[in-house]
């Protein structure tokens, strides 16, 4: 029998949640793989924090429509064996659970002992967590006297002090300055290399910087799942930007087989659209060399994540609106 750690570190199925008569989460299912950083993306109020609270055992899911909910952490059933499953989880809520009157060392030692670590193991874990989170210089300082950036680091340190297989971070960089954001994102990426991370965010730069895969949530439902690289290609157009030091007349560019549109951006720079299956780049390179157009730069068109996110959420909103109209007509 193999003792290798499971490839799937977190698996959730059919998670639903009501608050009173209001259904806020609808049959959410997702998986997290070892060595992966998964971004849970969505507007404020989309249901991200509620979902993370269920994934960490802080909030129980409601069974809906006969669908049985389930959450496994490293193969351990979180609902049936919560202590064993939670031992594999590190969690940073949106508001870090800090005791502001304690020193950093005392608080993190307390967090380690809460995890059941003996004193000698807790001391070693404290040193490592402070090192990973850049807290070596502030161990003796009172938490309440430190900046928000440091407090966020302390929140992450308490989440990882027991070396969990799964780290769950809710809006980990909200309210930080650009330097602090850069440092926290580097730390998240490092955590993803050694374990698995799921983070919620409404910041698209976060996804681009640290996430391997993206789940988009809207109105309590998951509406999109793919790699962050594929997300950038979603709904994209086929084309490129080209710079020619000695460009031909516009009609000559438009006459190249496969080109569907040419937009001058300057006297020497053009936005060119073409059919998806056309080999226009190869043709252009040959013609530029033959006709002395002096090609300087060629870069493929790529939609920004903001544009892609808007396309995905708008398309789903439109589809939902049509379904609703059809159901009530």
Task: Explain what this protein looks like in three dimensions.
This protein is of the alpha/beta class and 329 residues long. Among the domains are: 8-88 and 164-233, Rossmann fold, CATH 3.40.50.300; 239-300, Alpha-Beta Plaits (2-Layer Sandwich), CATH 3.30.70. The chain is 37% helix and 26% strand. It is built from 11 helices and 14 strands. It has helices at residues 48-55, 82-86, 104-114, 119-132, 148-160, 178-194, 204-210, 228-233, 250-254, 280-290, 305-328; strands at 8-19, 22-33, 37-41, 70-73, 76-77, 89-92, 166-170, 196-201, 213-218, 221-227, 239-244, 259-264, 269-274, 295-300. The strands form 3 sheets. It has a 6-stranded mixed β-sheet with strand order 6-7-8-3-9-10, with helices on both faces. The radius of gyration is 25 Å and the shape is elongated. Mean pLDDT is 87; it is low at 324-329.
Summarize the structure.
The protein has 329 residues and is of the alpha/beta class. The protein contains 11 helices and 14 strands.
Quickly list its features.
329 residues; alpha/beta; Rossmann fold; Alpha-Beta Plaits; six-stranded mixed β-sheet; four-stranded antiparallel β-sheet; 26% strand; elongated; disordered C terminus
Strand-helix topology:
Layout: E1 8-19, E2 22-33, E3 37-41, H1 48-55, E4 70-73, E5 76-77, H2 82-86, E6 89-92, H3 104-114, H4 119-132, H5 148-160, E7 166-170, H6 178-194, E8 196-201, H7 204-210, E9 213-218, E10 221-227, H8 228-233, E11 239-244, H9 250-254, E12 259-264, E13 269-274, H10 280-290, E14 295-300, H11 305-328
Parallel strand pairs: 3-8, 3-9, 6-7, 7-8
Antiparallel strand pairs: 1-2, 1-4, 4-5, 9-10, 11-13, 11-14, 12-13
């Amino acid at each position: 029998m193999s003792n290798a750690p499971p490839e799937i570190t977190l698996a959730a199925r059919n998670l639903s949640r009501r608050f009173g008569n209001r259904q806020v989460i609808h049959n959410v299912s997702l998986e997290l793989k070892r060595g992966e950083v998964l971004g849970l993306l969505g507007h404020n109020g989309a249901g991200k924090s509620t979902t993370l609270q269920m994934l960490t055992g802080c909030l129980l899911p409601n069974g809906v429509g006969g669908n049985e909910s389930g959450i496994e952490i490293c193969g351990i059933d979180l609902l049936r064996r919560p202590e064993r499953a939670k031992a594999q989880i590190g969690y940073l809520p949106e508001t870090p659970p800090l005791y502001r009157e304690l020193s950093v060392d005392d608080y993190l030692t307390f967090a380690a002992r809460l995890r059941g670590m003996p004193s000698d193991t807790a001391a070693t874990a404290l040193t490592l967590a402070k090192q990973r989170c850049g807290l070596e210089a502030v161990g003796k300082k009172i938490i309440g006297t430190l900046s928000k950036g440091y407090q966020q680091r302390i929140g992450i340190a308490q989440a990882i002090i027991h070396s969990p297989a799964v780290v769950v971070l809710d809006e980990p960089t909200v309210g930080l300055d650009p330097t602090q954001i850069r440092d926290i994102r580097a730390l998240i990426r490092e955590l993803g290399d050694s374990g698995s991370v799921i983070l919620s965010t409404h910041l698209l730069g976060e996804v681009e910087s640290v996430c391997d895969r993206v789940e988009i949530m809207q109105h309590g439902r998951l509406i999109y799942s793919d790699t962050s690289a594929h997300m950038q290609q979603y709904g994209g157009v086929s084309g490129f930007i080209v710079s020619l030091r000695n460009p031909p007349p516009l009609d000559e560019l438009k006459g190249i087989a496969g080109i569907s549109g040419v937009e001058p951006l300057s006297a020497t720079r053009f936005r060119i659209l073409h059919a998806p299956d056309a080999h226009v780049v190869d043709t252009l390179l040959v013609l530029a060399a033959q006709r002395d157009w002096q090609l300087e730069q060629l870069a493929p068109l790529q939609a920004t994540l903001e544009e892609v996110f808007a396309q995905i959420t708008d398309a789903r909103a439109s589809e939902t609106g049509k379904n609703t109209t059809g159901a009530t007509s």
